[in-house]
Design a protein that fits this description.
about 400 residues; alpha/beta; Aspartate Aminotransferase, domain 1; Aspartate Aminotransferase, domain 2; 2 domains; 8-stranded mixed beta sheet; 14 helices; globular; binds 4'-deoxy-4'-aminopyridoxal-5'-phosphate; binds glutamine; transferase; aminotransferase
């Protein structure tokens, strides 16, 4: 986690956003929207501040927010949760992931995750003293797909936890029912716990998001994580949640108690409102329609510029191979890109393990986000076409 001299390294997202600010390049690196979520939801947070929601809320989250999360899981997926014992509010999905991995794993345990994976996973596995093992997602004509046989082979007697993510950052893959059923078979056969990061659950285009907790044999072994940041375009509010069996949620609550104790008082009523307000949910549907158009715009533009592009089924990221443009290393390509084209992207190597086969296979790949205004994406695409 630290450089050899003990100094903290910024995450790749912070580094690339700083590069964008310094160079004035268009930032298609860090995944955050350049338009805020619904004004009614923002107003609910402002009202909460003005009406006394400013002291520590209950550690597990306010009762109305826990009820709203349980109602969301029931109406959307048919998942029944006890609001007092099976739902925990966290400081973003980031805290939920950290607290879950710290609660459930330790020295000697292996955590099996997809590769590439969101960068915080490797960090929290290291913090827990556990070891990371991986199963690859590979580019195919049908998007990035999970190598199920490799997943099976990666399980050892030390494997304790499967750390899943679908819809998947950075590939935009949405695991289909066959892939999920295969993962579930592996989890049941080896009696593994599953932590599933579903922060992009609403951001899917023409495919269905299936929570793995709904598959047979999975509810009793699965913690499901989500967050208001992606769904409602308020990434700075940091209200996330985790749900699942009472015993597992209780273990995560114990860790959360000593990480943050409690999470953003005024944002909790606002997110409870967002999750239950038909107008706010209709706003999300509109966001998804608009993201699908922006995905198509960016994919077409990247192809025109000469990249090989794998069209994502979900999230707000697209992976592109810069090898046809002469790149030999995605990180070097991304460092040069602001000067060359006035655009910032993130190398996929930030999501892989140095030296792994997946790291080598995706060495020249880079990630762009399309959760930016259409005019920004059009300008970025023009610049890339002109530069290459
Ligand atoms: N998981 C994934 C896959 C993400 O992309 C993100 C967003 N950066 C997070 C977790 C963190 O979410 P939050 O901002 O709610 O902590
Ligand atoms: N999740 C966002 C991304 O993948 C931002 C994460 C961050 O800045 N830590 O770009």
């Amino acid at each position: 986690l630290l450089d050899a001299d003990g100094s903290a390294r910024p995450t790749i997202f912070a580094e690339m956003s700083a590069l964008a600010t310094r160079t004035g390049a268009l930032n298609l690196g860090q995944g955050f929207p350049d338009v805020d979520g619904p004004a009614t939801v923002a107003r609910a947070a402002a009202d909460a501040i003005l009406h006394g929601h400013n002291q520590y809320p209950p550690g597990p989250g306010t009762a109305p927010l826990r009820a709203a999360i349980a109602a969301h899981q029931r109406t959307r997926y048919g998942i029944e949760l006890d609001v007092d014992t099976q739902v925990l509010v966290t400081t973003g999905a980031t805290e939920a992931l950290a607290a879950a991995v710290l609660a459930l794993t330790g020295s000697g345990d292996e955590v099996l995750m997809l590769e590439p994976s969101y960068d915080s996973y490797a960090a929290v596995v290291a913090m827990a003293g556990a070891t990371r093992t991986t199963a690859p997602l590979r580019p195919t004509a049908d998007g990035f797909r999970l190598d199920v046989a490799a997943l099976e082979r990666a399980v050892t007697p030390r494997t304790r936890l499967l750390l899943l993510n679908s819809p998947h950052n950075p590939t935009g893959a949405v695991l289909d029912r066959d892939e999920l059923a295969a993962v579930a078979r592996v989890a049941v056969a080896h009696d593994l716990l599953v932590v599933t990061d579903e922060v992009y659950e609403h951001l899917v285009f023409d495919v269905e998001h299936v929570p793995i907790a709904t598959l047979p044999g999975m509810a009793e072994r699965t913690l499901t994580i989500s967050s208001s940041g992606k769904t409602f375009s308020f990434t700075g509010w940091k209200i996330g949640w985790v749900s699942g069996p009472a015993e597992l949620v209780g273990a995560v609550r114990t860790v959360k108690q000593f990480l943050t104790y409690t999470s953003g008082a005024p944002f909790q009523p606002a997110v409870a409102h967002a999750l239950t307000d038909p107008a706010a949910l209709a706003w999300v549907d509109g966001l998804v329609r608009s993201l699908a158009r922006r995905r198509d715009l960016l994919c077409a533009g990247l192809r025109d510029a000469g990249f090989d592009v794998v069209r994502p089924d979900g999230t707000y990221f697209v992976l592109a191979d810069a090898a046809p443009l002469g790149a030999v290393d995605g990180a070097a390509f991304c460092r040069d890109l602001p000067g060359r084209a006035g655009v910032v992207a993130v190398p996929v190597s930030a999501f892989t393990r140095a030296g792994s086969p997946t790291h080598d296979a995706l060495r020249t790949w880079v990630r762009f986000t399309f959760v930016k205004r259409q005019d920004v994406l059009e300008e970025a695409v023009d610049r890339l076409r002109a530069a290459f």
